[in-house]
Amino acid sequence: MSKLSPDRLLGERAAMVDVSGIRRAFQRGATLDNPINLSIGQPDFPVPDAIKAAAIKAIDEDCNGYTLTHGHASMLEATRRHLHEDVGWAFEDSTDLIITSGTSGALQLAFMAVMNNADEVIVPDPYFVIYPNLGPMFGGRTVLCNTSPTFRMTADIVEPLMTDRTRMVLVNSPANPTGVVLTQDEVDDLYDLCTSRGVLLVCDEIYDLFTFPDALEQGLFPSPARRGQDMLLIRGLGKAYGCTGWRLGYAAGPKWLIAEMAKFQQYTYVCAPSIAQVAGAAAFEVDMSEAVANYAARRDLVFSELSPVTEVVRAGGAFYNWVKVPEHLGCTAAQFTERAVERNVLVIPGEVFSTVDTHFRLSYACCETDLRKGLAILKDMMAQD
Ligand SMILES: Cc1ncc(COP(=O)(O)O)c(C=O)c1O
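Above are the sequence and the pyridoxal-5'-phosphate SMILES. Below is the predicted complex in structure-token form.
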């Protein structure tokens, strides 16, 4: 009989973090034989050959050890160049950059550096699953910003939630799970609100590359980073290039903040994976426009198939649609997705991403045949009385 007991050993933090919703969804999926899987949160295309070759070359050339805490010189240089070309940032004076173990790694380092227990962070609802847990995991209290029914986290709904304990506002555009892309005016207003109140605006732009033409403004992806450098900009390469398992992201922002994040990186992740960093430096040069056009076409397909039978949030990016369970069915999203499982289709209920359970997340990062089959089944389920 083991003398180790969870009651005696597990800390309070463990009880504060709940993974039951998403775990239930994945466990349910695992019981199915060859499901039509519209629940996946990663691209269905392989890593482009040029990036694979760069990773293999990095191994062959013995780039297998630790890198500097801030990152490998090649990745730092390529990312700085990319951010300069993309959002006009300069790194000479007060801004710095750190390469992180995925976007999640960057978010965690930011929370470690900024939050005290009574401090507040405002996050959107619906949210990417880790957002509400970052407070309990690293200190601080999560304040949910209910973005329904437009699912746009705009300054006018954020401002009333601000208190003198607000330290950060976490925004995600293009958003998981809704696919919503904020406009340049909307992100500018958030930037102005946060900077005027001395609050750190953290923008998670992991899906920036997957912004569809109709959500671009003058050909550009709307980002608060175009307004100024007084914020924390977090991005990742996993979704953009199909290498989520390589754990590669970055954070750019005020030098004093990046210095603290680097301190915590030194004592936690140590550095982002060396091979991924060297390959990542090559990734910015790779043209992904075909993949983006492909996802835009799938987004349109989902919208045209489902909008006659229910409300579908018009997504501007990422690879998700946020679909309402028709009210006439009289069921929650969890109940609806259970019924979908009985018909071999996997989608994720709103309760996993929100305090309300009215919608489900449909990911079209799957093969088109499956997508069409899945849509036909969902449509059929929605048409029933
Ligand atoms: C909005 C958002 N941010 C961050 C992440 C985590 O990304 P990474 O795999 O780079 O840690 C995800 C992954 O699904 C996401 O959807």
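Residues 49-283 form a domain with the Aspartate Aminotransferase; domain 2 fold (CATH 3.40.640.10).
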